Amino acid sequence: MKKLWILCLLFSCVATAAPWQVGSRLQTFYNGDRPLVTRIYYPTNAQGQPQQVGGRPVFAGIPALPDAPPATGHFPLMIISHGSGGNNSSQAWLARALVEQGMIVVAANHPGSTSGDSIPAKSLELWQQTRDISALIGAMLKDGTWQPRINAQAIGVAGHSKGGYSVISAIGGLVALKDFIAGCQRQPRSPNCLFYAGVNKNSISATQFDANYTDARIRFAIAMDPGMVPYLQPASLRQISAPLLVIAAQHFMPGNDPESLGAESLAANSGQQPIKAIVLPGSNHFDFLQRCTPAAPEILAEEGEAFICGSSPAERERAHQQTIAAVLAFIQPWLSSPAGNQ
């Protein structure tokens, strides 16, 4: 009951106006030798017929104006980081809602962990994705088009699954490789471990895995059903550098299987740390992905991954709307800071 009360309290504070049109363009940035193919979603005053962008055979796109001129002004910046096997459109549903409220949103493909290039041994180099986030912030703050439009005092990060862990890492959450190895030896089929079952974890650099990747430019963070939560060091969570909202799924898989990534454990201590955490009743881990196309169930069934679209359209839409409401309530202080002029 307490969790539901917190959820309702958050939802009551949400902005409802959607004054901005959504523009979208592709741009490539770099984290060292890692190319970050990036989709930028941004406010625009342009008029015209929106087109579907970011769509795939399994996942629907969102309506946007491709390559429309960006609006002038100073807007909050949000970096969105996808989960293993995801891409720069995986949370386009959230990006759209944020842009409509006056944010610039940046989402990149993370090499070694993205659609068509998801390699467990590479993906377990968790620090790479956190460093990608910092590289994207730096690139946007140096870009001639975007730097004049960004409110550098209102930079946030959001992520799902592995990306959820990455944003926690970017504000100071720490893990230890030895704890992860020991945990996976005890529970090798837990959702946090199963994807990495075939990886020689002793070949991973403990120095880099355990390091602190705090980025002081980040003012707020949102983690959607993040991975690695059981291995986060409690002391580091009490000292994170920015407020954190955790939105946990009730289940990992669709249905009533009690298995989860463990993010709901943070909800039990919500308010006792610089963390707000809620659980979305009836939701599963994959509800934070894009809306599924009509063809998705058949395509995914052939690949043995029907669970990705195992929720009904109404259930996924409900999870999206609940998440959007919670996120907008959480980031309201930064949305209310000096922003763009229409």
From TrEMBL:
One GO biological process term: lipid catabolic process
Transmembrane segments: none
Record has Lipid metabolism as a keyword: yes
Annotated signal sequence range: 1-17
Keywords (A to Z) from UniProt: Hydrolase, Lipid degradation, Lipid metabolism, Signal
GO MF term set: 1-alkyl-2-acetylglycerophosphocholine esterase activity
Gene3D superfamilies reported for this sequence: alpha/beta hydrolase
Protein name per UniProt: Dienelactone hydrolase
Organism: Serratia fonticola
Lineage: Bacteria, Pseudomonadati, Pseudomonadota, Gammaproteobacteria, Enterobacterales
